[in-house]
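Subject: sequence -> structure tokens, single chain

Hey, anyone have a minute? Need the predicted structure for the following. Not urgent.
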Amino acid sequence: MIGGFIAKPVIGRLWVRRANLYSLPLSVSVSLVTALLTGHWWIFGTLYFLGNITLGIQSTTFFLLMADSVDVQERLFGDRNEGLLTSALSFSTKVGMAFGAALTAYGLAIAGYNPHAVTESAREQVSVLYFLGPAFFAVLQIIVIGFLRGSEGEPRLAEKKAVGLAL
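Reply:
Had a minute. Here:
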């Protein structure tokens, strides 16, 4: 929630795409550093909390990028299909959650996780999945968003609305 409040001034300064591109590497860094600090709960908890603030920024930019895709679609094809793009976003989010749950189940199976008899090896592998999995997917997001092209030089309407500049 704090990240959502911080998102407005961050997006106002960096705009949507750059705000996302700057917050994702911060998430990766915090994820990797906290993996090394699991034994130091106070430092771990503080960094984990701060790292999750970037998720609020990313969540905000996610929907703003979707709104921009409506504008791009209108510019390219001459009509606006907000409903189609919104339903595609909803569907892809659900598919992504199902895919993530399946990957988690496979990861736990590969780690040899048994909730009734947790071994040290399984515990270490679950930690690797917990910290490196999100870092891996955040790097993929950086690559994909890095290739997005828009009118970066001038603020778009969705970005103006996000920072309260639109009427």
